[in-house]
Amino acid sequence: MPFSSAGTEVLTLETAKELKRRGHDVEVWTGHPADADTAQSKPIDHYEYDGLKVHRYNHNYMFFSPAKNIFEFEYYSLAFKKYFTEYVKKARPDIVHFFHLLRISTSAVDVCLENNIPCVFTPTDFWVICSTCQLRLPDNSLCLGPDREGLNCCRHLARNFMGEKERYISLLPGWVFALFIRAAGLSRWPEKKYSPMLRSISLRKDSIMERINKTDRVLAPTRFMEKILVHNGLNPGIVDFMPYGLNMKAFEKKVPKKRGERLRVGFMGTLSEHKGAHLLIEAVKLLPQETPMDVKIYGDLSQFPEYTEKIKRMAEGDSRIEFLGHFPNEKIGEVFAGIDVLVVPSIWYENTPLVIYSAFAGSTPVIATNLGGMSEVVSHGVNGLLFEKGDAMGLSGLLKRLLTEKGLLEKLSGNVRPPKSISRYAEELEAVYIDVLAKRRKR
Q1: CB within 8 A of 361, min separation 6: which ones?
Q2: Before 305, cis peptide (omega within 30)?
Q3: pLDDT-derived band at 442, boundaries 50, 70, 90
Q4: Could you read off the pLDDT of 267-320 as tens digits, one per residue?
Q5: Which of 50, 120, 243, 327 could serve as 217's disulfide partner, Cβ 3.0–4.6 Å?
Q6: Same CATH fold assignment for domains 7-245+424-442 and 249-415
């Protein structure tokens, strides 16, 4: 904040504010994507946001990456380690709580270990096993994590990040990949450009899991997240199940929903392919133009301009679809008062996006993809409806049901229950911190 305000940032902000309100001293460290000049001239800067002291690491892959191996630097940064070590030795925090390690890397965990600082980790997505965070392959099929030696990850990242002439590497047989990976550690191995990168990708999961398994506690927000991480090497003995909490202040003032003849459908989130706004537009376009429906799409229109232009073209000529941009988080209660149902059409597993909890706080049922953490909290036919990944026709059918099936919307709305409050969440975190600190003192 304020440069990015997706779910992880909102959760971190609200948790930090609530812990501060409860009498704790809280400071936030964050990694910020910066150009090379900023990263070189001002690697760390400091500011205050909403009463919180923020330390910002200006991160640039190419500037700090040793030997330009961005794949290793992505998950272990000696540059960040240096700055965080200086801070920890001076500030001596009682405990460090990680909500994400993107751009600061697992070197931050090493700093805590080396300085005997207890630390806990809340994974808000799948970064610890997938550098793209989404467990989603280039063809949009889903993945359960790296295979043996990370060969599937090597292929994926070669397709994504190498130049057109070099992407042939992704087509090499598995044994060739394995040869490059094993040989890269040999000083006499002649190929020095790609083999170190492939080796770094291959070692990524084990390197990260080795460090995560040395944290004092991992707080899994969904059972699905817990299952996936344990499957990929997380020690189940350090895991606690702890769903997120939500700041309910924006919903305290009950704004009555003024339902009319038209179904008011909402989408809120990042306007990027993995969030699936295009599926909602496609589903709406499958219904006749005269269908009494208004679709309100909320999200930053400038963050991913190519995708935004794509979905605007898809919606062109359909007066039912409106792009309303970003709104301040404190206005979220008012926004939910203006919709009858929220659609979360993500094409990746997600991890219970906070927007679903916000919908429930606003007494709004949810139509979501039948995947991962979403289906853990949205029960089909109870507090919402589920459709299969990428199935625009199925989503279209569910929207039609809400319009034609008498009493369905009212039934779903009546079954919505408010989520855990941020106050309750902070109370649960305090209990974890106290337990961790007590066990540390007994060592």
Answers
A1: 246, 248, 250, 251, 333, 336, 418, 419
A2: no
A3: confident
A4: 998 899 989 999 999 999 999 999 999 999 999 998 889 999 999 999 999 999
A5: 120
A6: yes
CATH architecture for the domain at 7-245+424-442: 3-Layer(aba) Sandwich (3.40)
Interacting residues of 159 by C-beta distance below 8 A, sequence separation 6+: 138, 167, 170
Predicted confidence (pLDDT) at residue 136 exceeds the cutoff of 80: no
Phi then psi for residue 30, to 5 deg, are -145, 150
**322: number of Cβ within 10 Å:** 12
396 and 283 Cβ atoms separated by less than 8 Å:
yes
Of 134, 171, 175, the residue nearest 276 (C-alpha): 134
- What is the model's pLDDT at position 256? 64
Domain positions in the chain = 7-245+424-442, 249-415
Nearest to 18 by CA among 422, 361, 428: 422
Pairing of strands 52-59, 27-33: parallel
For domain 249-415, which architecture applies? 3-Layer(aba) Sandwich (3.40)
Distance of CA 373 to the CA centre of its chain: 12
